[in-house]
């Protein structure tokens, strides 16, 4: 059986929706099933129905992960949709083409920081599990990468700030999907702890 790829789908005469190329406007920390069946599905639908025209670059949040498998399939995967909608049983499937690639920062940290230089990038999404939003004082600014998700995020935000400063429209809309109370506020608190620990500028803060 051939691997799922754009070439394979063309060979098979696939006539469903596909978006082969688009700007990477979303960076997602987390490459597991939940985000790919949730956030990335919605982005795929927005691409088809609303002309969102965006690709998602995934970042593997921990050393063991799925980046190799995802990249071998050019970011493509099949999502099965089962349940009920408007009282009717649903049993459907959709090939998701919203994902461009997956970065493993433990093997190529520079590729993650390079995303901060992309002027099209506007949205950050994350699901690093309920344990992911935690401050680890052992993380250092020069770690490649910092072990904690908030550490990685702080370093990434600083790279963005160093590139674009406070230019309007170059900040991020951050969608934190970790299953803890006040997830966004907890993540922000951890980021500010790293700003203080690493002695980063008040302007950046």
Describe it.
- It contains seven helices and seven strands, in the order αβααβαβββαβαβα.
- It has helices at 6-11, 33-37, 39-50, 67-72, 109-115, 149-164, 183-198, and strands at 24-29, 55-59, 77-85, 88-96, 99-103, 123-126, 173-176.
- The strands form two sheets. It has a five-stranded parallel β-sheet with strand order 5-2-1-6-7. Strands 3-4 form a two-stranded antiparallel sheet.
- The mean pLDDT is 97.
From the helix content, strand content and strand pairing, which structural class follows? alpha/beta
Shape: globular
Helix amount: 25-40%
Count of helical stretches: 7
The rounded distance between the terminal residues' Cα atoms is 52 Å
Largest sheet: 5 strands, parallel
Proportion of residues in extended strands: 15-25%
Task: Provide mean pLDDT, rounded.
Answer: 97
Extract low-pLDDT stretches. Answer: none
Instruction: Give helix and strand order, one letter per element, not per position.
Output: HEHHEHEEEHEHEH
């Amino acid at each position: 059986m051939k691997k799922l790829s754009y070439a394979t789908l063309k060979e098979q005469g696939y006539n469903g929706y596909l978006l082969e190329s688009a700007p990477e406007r979303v960076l997602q920390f987390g490459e597991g099933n939940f985000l790919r069946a949730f956030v990335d599905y919605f982005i795929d639908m927005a691409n088809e129905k609303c002309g969102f025209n965006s690709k998602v670059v995934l970042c593997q949040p921990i050393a063991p992960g799925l980046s190799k498998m995802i990249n071998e399939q050019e970011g493509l995967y099949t999502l099965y949709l089962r349940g009920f909608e408007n009282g009717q049983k649903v049993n459907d499937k959709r090939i998701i083409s919203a994902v461009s690639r997956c970065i493993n920062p433990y093997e190529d940290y520079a590729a993650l920081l390079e995303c901060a230089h992309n002027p099209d990038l506007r949205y950050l999404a994350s699901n690093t599990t309920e344990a992911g939003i935690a401050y680890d004082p052992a993380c250092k600014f020069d770690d490649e990468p910092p072990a904690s998700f908030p550490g990685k995020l702080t370093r990434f935000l600083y790279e963005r700030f160093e590139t674009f400063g406070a230019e309007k429209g170059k900040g991020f809309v951050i969608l934190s999907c970790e299953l803890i109370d006040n997830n966004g506020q907890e993540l922000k608190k951890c980021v500010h702890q790293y700003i203080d620990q690493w002695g980063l500028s008040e302007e950046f803060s």
